[in-house]
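User: Could you write out the 3D structure of this protein bound to FE2/S2 (inorganic) cluster? I've included everything you need below.
Assistant: Certainly. Input first, then the structure.
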Amino acid sequence: MNRTLAPFDRRRGEVEQVDRVGAYLRLLCSDPGGPAPRPGQFYMLALAAEWGGGADERPYLPRAFSYLRHEPGRLEFLLEDVGPGTHRLGAARPGEGIWLLGPLGAGFAAPREGRAPLLVGGGIGIVPLAPLQADMPGPALLGFRDAAHAAAGELMADVTLCTDDGSAGHHGLVTELLAARLDEPVEVYACGPPAMLEAVRLMTTQRGVPAQLALESGMACGFGACFGCVVPTRDGYVRVCVDGPVLEASDLEAVPAH
Ligand SMILES: Cc1cc2nc3c(=O)[nH]c(=O)nc-3n(C[C@H](O)[C@H](O)[C@H](O)COP(=O)(O)OP(=O)(O)OC[C@H]3O[C@@H](n4cnc5c(N)ncnc54)[C@H](O)[C@@H]3O)c2cc1C
Ligand code: FES
């Protein structure tokens, strides 16, 4: 297995800007001297000040985030405000210090010979697909709950959109768009909520279409030490943070529902 081991140091960057992309927040920060990430890799982030000490002392641990864009010395992330960590990061002010640990994990691999990439994203799961598409162009099928979230579709090219409520693009699930493309010689690259990834896993394995799934297990350390992120595969348990987050659909028994 192509395992990426952790760089055991964290770097201090600086928040440069936080802005809105539809219903999401985009965080831009400096990453002086940081190595270049590969699409599908992620970072553990924590602000240098006022991290922890909120309700129940949370957020205590750093949180895992895929990167949206990278240029030397600079990183962009896209956040969905779902809890204390994302809330605090989304409220960061320019000039605040931010601890970055990464890039971590094993990213996406090139498609098998004769197959073209087909990207399938759900909600905040589109994030790792954006740098993948920049490296490996291919059409993107993106599903969101509504038009406010679907505004993030503008971060990618060659997009076919759908929404749960029909307020933008096709009214329905992104897996319906995928079903119509599975006769093509494609390799699927998917990230999204567990139910979506499980549907993609089932559809692709039944049809013999290769698929690489970027999983989002809860993570405490991000570098293989805590075993908090394990998922079962046909070959036993693996740690999503070091053996993934990108795993072959055909290796998984099922995508765990967190
Ligand atoms: C590899 C990887 C990449 C990721 N990339 C991104 C990304 O690019 N952007 C992004 O926004 N997120 C991303 N995530 C997800 C993000 O790391 C988590 O959502 C993180 O937990 C958010 O931290 P938080 O403190 O805001 O929320 P948390 O408090 O950790 O809560 C996260 C979710 O769990 C629920 N929850 C919290 N506590 C409980 C409880 N006691 N019982 C039941 N449910 C609970 C919350 O309602 C929320 O939906 C990624 C995760 C991984 C592993
Ligand atoms: S998050 Fe600690 S082992 Fe994966």
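The pocket of FE2/S2 (inorganic) cluster (ligand 2) is lined by residues 219-222, 224-229, 239, 241 (CB under 6 Å).
User: Perfect, thank you.
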